[in-house]
Amino acid sequence: MRTAALFLSAGVLSLLAAGLAQAAEIAPAEATDVEAVIITGEKVGRSVQETVTSVAVVGAKQIEQQNIQNFADIVQRTANMSDTYGATGFTIRGVSNTSVSGGGSAGLATVYVDGASIPERGLANGPLEMWDISQVEILRGPQSTLQGRNAMAGAVIIRSAEPTFDFSGKARLIMTDAKDRSFAVAVSGPLIADQLAFRVSAEERHKDGFIRNITRGGQEDALDASTVRAQLMFTPTALPGLKLRAIWTHDERQGAYIYTYVRTDRPNFYDQRVSISDYPNSSDSKTDMLTLEGDYRLNDRFSLSSVTAWSKVDNFSRYDGDDTDRPLSYGDSLEGEESLSQELRLNYQGERLSGVVGLWYSKRERDYDLKSLTNVDTPQPTLAALLQTPAFGSFPAAQANAIATQYVAALPVIPVNFKGVSYEDITTTALFADGRYQLTDKLSILGGFRYDREENEQAVDQVTTFAGIYPNPTNFGPLAPVIAGLNFAVSQFVAQANATTPAYTRTFEAFLPKLGVKYDFTDDISASFVVQRGYRSGGSSVNQARSSVVAYDPEYTWNYEAALRTQWLDRTLTVNANAYYVDWTDQQVAVNMGLNAYDTQIQNAGASHLYGFEIEAAHQVNPSLDWYASLGHTKTKFDEFNVTIGALTTDLAGSEFPFAPAWTLAGGVNWRWGNGFIGNLNANYRTESYSSVGVDQKNYKVPARTLVNAKVGWENQAYGIYAYANNLLDEQYIQYNQAALNRAMLGDPRVIGFMVEARW
């Protein structure tokens, strides 16, 4: 199969080379403007050139041209973005969508699909395929003024295609050499002429995966997924200016656990990807989302908008904690999250003043049930310290360490059966505003704010029992009473985690201002500078080892950002840039308190800064040829990061954020011939980064990588036939590495695919 893939790859490259040569010979046609794209994420409907926020936009045209099949494909091709943990998450400007150091219960990047937010777990097992999607916006940098608590890194806005009043449809079939098969269809049309329209889309996908389990048999990372979306759009003639839209999405998938590894202690592990886990690594997820949107234009200046969104995600996961062929550590988790939100907005568009003011309410409920067998390293320093106390005989330090070392040799790990149930309820209300006032024909003042109030309630109930065999005291001769005492101490370590913690409620309030200026040098060139505050609320973390709920405070950023927007060559060439500096204080970080690996809680122990820039260009050379490119740079650094382990405090200041490559580069070219042949060649590059934070960060290096993708085909208005290659040059690369445990998460190898589409 790989030999065939090599020939197919060579063929694709030959077609691309020929296509470029032929495109160069085409007589230059009249160039056209780069398509004007309207940004919806800032809730005011401005074009990219009018938006000062750093925003990357991928429309339906780009999704089709570049063979973008899921959100992970967009992450790879966007400036200052990178994937995390095998494409189950992402970073924006080096900041992960979950956290940069394991701290905090809220995400750091909001992802909306048709107005409904997807929780962090849903990003790994949710409806993020790009079939029948009209636009994806990635707003880089803090969006707390408009998006609230979960937008310190940025926000992602995904919009599906709207219903149409003309009957239309499309279908697609994909098959690859990696045994990845999918079929998708979308149909739209009128129910009442010019007033009520519908749209239904569906996609079914089956993938065998690349990792073979040689202990249990079968594939470790197979995927079965189905997504259905149904919409209604109502534009009543009795109320001109009113538009109502209802969108329902249902997604089910059975796939791999969020952390699924390949053994790296096997020969040729890139081409022969193997897992030896005896316990399944799987996730079964179901997502439902319902959105009701309403827009009503009151007059030429005022309009009202309402967005009601409900979502529910249920995920059942099973995992092998030791990743070996022995039943040493494993677990089952059941997680459910349900959220309801309501947003009301009033927009104003005057001659000099424009903007939006709005109200926000949301209710989020999360339940988490975990059952596991876990091996906790026996804490030799803690036992040695106990032996030096009067209760254990006041042994001298050297002798106490020697006895503790003997005990650890007999019981190197403490097997613990754990059962825990926790819940978290979060209620948020907010008032926000954002606008601009044109002082002169060229100078505008930008401003906004958000007042955010949150009530956070959390509780935990957990039971732990010792699941192993204690060392036999009689085997230690005269030390038998001491060993018996250590056995009791270990039993108390385990029992210490047994408790029921009552519900704990905290309230947070934040005022998040935004202020800036924008200057229009010409109709095609403008510059701006904006200062705004970012925010993530505090909360309570569960320390499993101590069975306690520990409070932590909010964290804040100040973001300083300059932007340049330019258009050239009769607006056929767009070159935009943003540069930023972020100061981050009271950072929420995960800190180990020293008892064992589970003696971890969140504290406000960090401070950091980051800076960088993005440059993005797009050029419509003529109707047959266009190209695009982007360059991103980010530098991250912890200024304070104190980790306490027992009596030892380690300062990790200077560490970089995980999954934060310093440089990202992407680009591509599209061309179309008059005889129906089309082609796309694109590539993206990420420099090396680290997959962990800590004193041994250098041991978690993720090497640099370059991915090249291509698509060629023939099409007309009715149908199209295409061939494509992802990772065309078969780059071998690691996405997450645990060298000490001989395992890693690998990027996908080269995949050759064939696609047939029909349109009517």
UniProtKB/TrEMBL annotation:
<feature type="signal peptide">
    <location>
        <begin position="1"/>
        <end position="23"/>
    </location>
</feature>
<feature type="domain" description="TonB-dependent receptor plug">
    <location>
        <begin position="48"/>
        <end position="155"/>
    </location>
</feature>
<keyword id="KW-0408">Iron</keyword>
<dbReference type="Pfam" id="PF00593">
    <property type="entry name" value="TonB_dep_Rec_b-barrel"/>
</dbReference>
<keyword id="KW-0406">Ion transport</keyword>
<keyword id="KW-0472">Membrane</keyword>
<keyword id="KW-0813">Transport</keyword>
<dbReference type="GO" id="GO:0006826">
    <property type="term" value="P:iron ion transport"/>
</dbReference>
<dbReference type="InterPro" id="IPR012910">
    <property type="entry name" value="Plug_dom"/>
</dbReference>
<feature type="domain" description="TonB-dependent receptor-like beta-barrel">
    <location>
        <begin position="248"/>
        <end position="728"/>
    </location>
</feature>
<dbReference type="InterPro" id="IPR039426">
    <property type="entry name" value="TonB-dep_rcpt-like"/>
</dbReference>
<keyword id="KW-1134">Transmembrane beta strand</keyword>
<dbReference type="GO" id="GO:0009279">
    <property type="term" value="C:cell outer membrane"/>
</dbReference>
<dbReference type="InterPro" id="IPR000531">
    <property type="entry name" value="Beta-barrel_TonB"/>
</dbReference>
<dbReference type="Pfam" id="PF07715">
    <property type="entry name" value="Plug"/>
</dbReference>
<keyword id="KW-0732">Signal</keyword>
<keyword id="KW-0675">Receptor</keyword>
<dbReference type="InterPro" id="IPR036942">
    <property type="entry name" value="Beta-barrel_TonB_sf"/>
</dbReference>
<protein>
    <submittedName>
        <fullName>TonB-dependent receptor</fullName>
    </submittedName>
</protein>
<comment type="similarity">
    <text>Belongs to the TonB-dependent receptor family.</text>
</comment>
<keyword id="KW-0798">TonB box</keyword>
<keyword id="KW-0812">Transmembrane</keyword>
<keyword id="KW-0410">Iron transport</keyword>
<keyword id="KW-0998">Cell outer membrane</keyword>
